[in-house]
Fold each of these.
Amino acid sequence: MKTYLKDYFFLTLGALIYAFAIEGILIPSHIIDGGITGISMILNTLTKQPLGAFIVAINLPFIILAFKKLGIRFVLATFYSILIFACGVTVFGQLFHGHAVIPDLELFLAAIFGGLILGAGVGLIIRNGASVDGTEIMAIYATKKIPFSVGEIIMFINLFIFTVAGFVYDWQHALYSIITYFVAYKTMDIVIEGLNESKSVFIITDYSSEIGKDIMEKMDVSVTYVDAEGGYSGVKKRIVYCVISRLQVQKLKEIAKNIDPRAFIAIENVYEVEGVRVKKRKI
């Protein structure tokens, strides 16, 4: 129950942040988002009908599609997020009446900060197991019919949306919309993956015990030994594996190279680490 409450709290917060970015920054500057929200914003401009109604109506078929593919939990969380987002744009729309939160905000600043706030809101939603845009769901199903990846299909859809925006608004605002989309995309990555990026390290060496012991003693980092076999040589070896912070990378390299200058070291990014760290034994 605690997990569900936490998830839905952040889904609500993310949807309201997203709605604030749309109504408080982007709409007053005639800048649009990508995906279903972008289509809804264009239709809202052309017809003057409620933006929230378009968001729910256009997303609904894709939510139904997601039921088989992505499961009931995802569908319920997504439907909830879209409803809160739609209510949010309605409330903020009444509150701001088409005026920006910061009066006379330059288009470039509106594109940057709108993208930052928008990306933070959508990132919170995705991080907590939901979506707020049916474009990706549509793309997942479209990959079965056409020879393109999900990412490529989304890119084509958004390219079409921003092209239409150029005719509905003007090309300057359409180009600023692309900047907003790019900033939002990068911000989403940071929110979803986190700022505390760690590194996983694999060390292949003939001196695994010595290197592992030094890492544990000098860096206070736990290591794991993995039995392996060389593909060409067929020689049995033990790989030293550990997870460290970015600031510890250079120190670890020095330890490994001081013991074995020929050690093979592979370092990868790790965006999230969970679990209990094993403490060293006291003898």
Amino acid sequence: MNVVACYKVVPDAQDIQAAPGAAPDLSRAERVIGEYDLMALEEAAKLAEATEGRAVLLSAGSSAVNDTKLVKAALSRGAEELFCVVDDALESADAWQTATALAAALGRMEYDVVLCGEGSSDQYAQQVGSLLGSMLGVPTLNGVSAVTAIDGKLRVERTLEDVVETVDVPLPAVLCVTSDINLPRVPQLKDILAAGKKPVTSWGLDELGGLAATAVEVESVLAPQDAERKHIIYDEVSDEAIAAVASAIKAAR
């Protein structure tokens, strides 16, 4: 089975600061693989191993995608090859533009299943996987918490609010996996060294039809304002305390 795991390079959240005017300052933020995408990378490696198949990676973004350290970090997690769409115009791409670039790249690749994280660590729109499946015209499921290969198809579990849904999915397909589907491996030194020898194929947007028209217009991106806390503490559970809490909430609205 040919398994493709998609990931996004994002600013490390712990390095983001608020600039004057409340705009986020990313100038000192180190680039990392999105934390939700790590589960997709791990599941791709496990699924390829279980089916004696092949796991590869796909990413679309700015030149940071080709950073040697990040390439090794991605390929040290079990995949055999990396494909990427690299253009600085993708730095601020919305979900539609990102999905369009990924779909164009997949048109040049062999795949049976494409795995995405439940959302990116920066925007967390939770739209790219669903848009990608629609563009490819294949079955698409989100909320996937378990995947098993059975007789040329996938048996998928989706953990919903109060039930676990089991679905048999024909291939090819796109699956968006949850953050609790697995525990991503910690690459060892030998894995990192081996990753430096794995092939990497890069395309520019001009080779894949250019940048798609944006689907949204962003007015501004601002950090939330600090709110002064009331420091009101209720240390008992009683009807009177509950009523007091409710009254305080109503008064503050």
Amino acid sequence: MSAGKEKGYPGFQIGTSFLLVIFVIICLVLLGVLSLSGALRDKGYSDKAAEKTKLYYAAVSKAQHKLGEIDKTLSGIEKKGDGYEVYLEDAEKAASGLEGVACMRDGESIVLSYKVPIRDSQSLFVEVEVIDPEKGNGTYKIVKWQEESETVWEEEGTLPVLQFDD
């Protein structure tokens, strides 16, 4: 047996395994922090979406109540048998008494419109056309029910993308 040879450790030392464990722990902590920040950002987005949905459906409820007032008003008009033109005149007089409802006469039709605010920059716009109740389809039909912006976008200025010096 040779006395000059000692058994050495392989190239993988205890310090190397300790550094590998530290690296794995740092990676796991970093992954956890990134996951937490993504979850918080998603929670913020979903909170904003829930608030917008809540405000929208509150406005829809108010618009439905206003539509109920219009329906009650139009249903209360007596059909005198004098024709659709007389009915439209009576409907126009009755609708002018409703608060917040604009009445527009266009030839042989009347369009009633109103806005319900959703928030400062948005509102729900509703247009209802008065129809002949003798035809059996009710007293009105909804022409428009849409969300509209109350603010007008204005261009602040131009960007000097291409400048030619002559």
Amino acid sequence: MWHSCQKQLELKIHSMPSGSVFGIADFAELAAPKTVSKMLARLEGEDGIERVLRGIYWKPDGIHTSPDPDRVAKALARENTWQLVPCGKTALHLFGLEEKSPEEWTYVTDGTYRSYFYDGKRISFLHTTGKILSTMSEKTALLVQVLKAYGREHVTDELMTRIASFLNFEDAKRIWEESRHTTEWIAGAIFRIFQKKKEKIPGEN
């Protein structure tokens, strides 16, 4: 039984692309958490995987010395069954509005306040209400956090035009529909972003 589960775990890891980050929860269908933990520990260093944090591993890509913080954050969220959305400078970076990686990767989550450190990187989780996370798609929630990071007084017409350039029409429409019940100024800004995108579509009313 152990040998069979170990083989399935190895095959699953082998099928993952280089740079993947995973934890015990990602193999929940194979065995109990303690068993999976032991299996991963046995593979560390000898089968192409490295430990990042307790219970979190990655498959090195041969280019970077440590995994992408956003992938680590998502793996931690899966381990803790949290929903999460990037916020602050992290949201700006992941949306494409800032090239420089943030010094601290921050996320709002329906879990607890917690910070993790690895290879000189810091990931922090901040608590927020689950309602915000559960009623929006990932892209909508990310854009809401982008606007919050700028603040109402800094969301200019130029910025909204730039944001619109990152979205296709269908994404812009879905984001507008999902964000109608957010804070009034955010909903208004997203509506204007949608309008800007709509104006670029020939034949649309």
